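Readers outside the structure-tokenisation community will struggle with the description of the input data as it stands. Showing the layout once, in full, would remove most of the difficulty. For illustration, here is how one protein appears when written out as sequence plus structure tokens:
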Amino acid sequence: MSTATAGGAAKASPAPQQRKSVTGTRKRLAVAFLLPALVLLGALVVYPIGYSIYRSFFDKSGDFSGFANYGELFTDDTILTAIKNNAIWVVLAPAIATALGLIFAVLTERVRWGTAFKLLVFMPMAISMLAAGIIFRLVYEQDPDRGALNAVWVGVHDTFAESSAFPKAHPGQESPLKAGGGGSFITRTTVKAGEPVVLPLLGVPKEKMPDGAEPAKPAQPDPAKVTGTAWQDFTLGKGVGTRNAPDTTESGYPGITIEAVKDGKVVESTKAAADGTFALSDEADGAQLRFPASNFREPYNGVDWLGPEKAIPFIGLNFVTLSVILSYVWMWAGFAMVLIAAGLAGIPRELLEAARVDGANEWQVFRRVTVPLLAPVLAVVAVTLMINVLKIFDLVFIIAPGDVRDDANVLALQLYNSFVDRDSGVASAIAVLLFLLVIPVMAFNVRRLRREVRR
């Protein structure tokens, strides 16, 4: 193309220059800089995905098996348990962590030490999954002397329901006591006022006797009362002491409950003194004396947090899975809180004040104003956590004991187990399944981000 000049001569227009990007960088130069990253991405992401899809069509021995490995995913009980547990993880863990993050973010805005609290809540993010798993494996120990959670749980329980001091106690040979049903022991014959009764028991080690136990004493006869002694009828050393007779080398059972029973009904009850002696009124005359089963109740050892028992039966959630989910929430609630707090800081305060002026209470402001305005941030947090829990592995592998690991199984752990069993076909099929499960979540996230950009 040419343009006319004043002299009538035609002048050629300058040749177009090579187009540059908005940053002034030529496309070829940009591609040259991106090429190493693209090669690395292809080697570490694209190739493994493609090879996993290819390998999922071959069996353990390397022979082509079609879709057999995918069929096994939905027929093998262990893998089905992993799929079910993954579904529970995807629903519960992000929901609980996001809800806690929202609560923490809102409440810490109202206290002066909110920053310090946020720091404490976020600190678990600095701990690796391995370290967190080891910590919570100890926290969830069932033995209250080792497990911190059960130590607290047992302490609270024993505050309202005292455990028995004589869980292993039982009558010996030629004892005047017999089994009374339901774990109780009762005298073989009826008792009479004025005739002291002996109620000997065995089975409590000396070091397990309650504090304050004193040497056993024979009860004094009282014509108006039924008296007796409840004690540990055992003296260390052969031929020492007399069977079914209190001895000063033996210990009384302080606080043990004795009931007087007539025609199957309890007419009176009492507790033994430190030396094992007790007294009942003449109402007990002609009754049988019974040690109720509550005397021999096993000590409460808390909850088996890492056991297969069902915590919520109708969704199949067992205690071990719930425990691992709670440890995950402990780590990631701080992440949710920080993101939500950042979103909360961007909310115009005029909207909140306007709602309060219009007569809304704090709950209505939170539910009808704060939460809807935070919806994009809550979606980001929830989606991020969903993607994260789909590949959860470390916590389950470390926290769940070997005997219940199948009950807490998840897909990433099952993938690992399949590789250990040298069944790379099934392992690859599981990897493809995880990839397919992540795609819808990622698509939702990308669509939401594009919608935000258009705004």
About this structure: The first strand starts at residue 2 and ends at 4. The chain has two domains: 55-153+306-454, 177-296. The CA atoms of residues 187 and 380 lie 70 Å apart. The radius of gyration is 37 Å.
